[in-house]
Recover the amino acids of this structure.
């Protein structure tokens, strides 16, 4: 039995080694390599890619502090945080309404929530490119109301695309948490003359917090590394970490710097996951 436990896990270990650990190890090695004379990289050891995040070469090759990449990191975090907050505001009432529907209608509504996942992400983003364009429905309505300029290639367009792309990831776990609520608790709040807002704040949200936390993680983590929305809807004007990595591995061909930025992004994701795991352990200890 003990041998089966070991050998039975070997295929999973091999899969994890080949698809996760080994690629991450290669990215780490490339991040410490030298940039090639014609792009790409040359094997060696150098911390220049990491120094480039904070410093640039000034007169006499002296390092000078340059916050431009810190601004990109901060912008990425702001986009991801705002997207997560908007998705949460949308998801809670939507999930609550779905959870209180009859079984057949509930299944149909959940199907509609997951329906966008049946279509490629790039197709969905291109759809918003048409909708927000000057000839699209929202673009024409904006101009009819006297709006100046276009809606495309703005931070607002980027946020619209990100919220549309990731809001189902928030709705599903919040719905699963709300569905488990005991209706008697809501009735008790009504019997104690609690308003709807107070019931939401003191009953629904605390009891559905695990679903809210899970949905926030599911939205925030991919939002940090998003590429399509800033590139297509934002026009690349507001660079994020995802577009920066794509640019370094693409047109700039600075693979060591792109790998360094990718590792910084991965470290940020790991910090978020570790903090969430620590919070979950604290809640379990209190329980």
């Amino acid at each position: 039995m003990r041998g089966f436990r070991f050998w039975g896990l070997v295929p999973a270990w091999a899969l994890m080694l080949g698809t996760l650990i080994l690629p991450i190890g290669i990215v780490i090695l490339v991040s410490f390599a030298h940039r090639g004379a014609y792009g790409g990289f040359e094997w060696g050891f150098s911390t220049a890619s990491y120094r480039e995040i904070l410093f640039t070469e000034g007169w006499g090759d002296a390092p000078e502090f340059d916050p431009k990449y810190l601004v990109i990191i901060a912008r990425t975090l702001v986009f991801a945080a705002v997207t997560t907050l908007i998705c949460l505001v949308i998801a809670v009432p939507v999930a609550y309404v779905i959870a209180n529907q009859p079984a057949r209608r509930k299944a149909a509504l959940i199907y509609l929530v997951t329906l966008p996942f049946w279509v490629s992400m790039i197709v969905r983003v291109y759809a918003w490119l048409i909708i927000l364009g000057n000839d699209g429905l929202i673009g024409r309505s904006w101009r009819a109301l006297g709006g100046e300029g276009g809606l495309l290639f703005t931070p607002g367009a980027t946020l619209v695309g990100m919220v549309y792309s990731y809001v189902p990831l928030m709705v599903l776990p919040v719905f699963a948490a709300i569905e488990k609520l005991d209706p008697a608790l809501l009735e008790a709040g009504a019997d104690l003359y609690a308003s709807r807002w107070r019931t939401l704040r003191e009953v629904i949200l605390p009891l559905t917090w695990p679903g809210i936390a899970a949905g926030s993680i599911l939205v925030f983590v991919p939002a940090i590394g998003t590429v399509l929305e800033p590139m297509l809807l934002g026009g690349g004007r507001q660079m994020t970490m995802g577009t920066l990595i794509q640019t370094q591995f693409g047109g700039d061909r600075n693979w060591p710097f792109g790998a360094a930025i990718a590792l910084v992004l991965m470290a940020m994701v790991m910090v978020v996951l570790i903090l969430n795991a620590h919070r979950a352990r604290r809640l379990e200890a209190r329980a």
User: Anything to note?
Assistant: The mean pLDDT is 84.
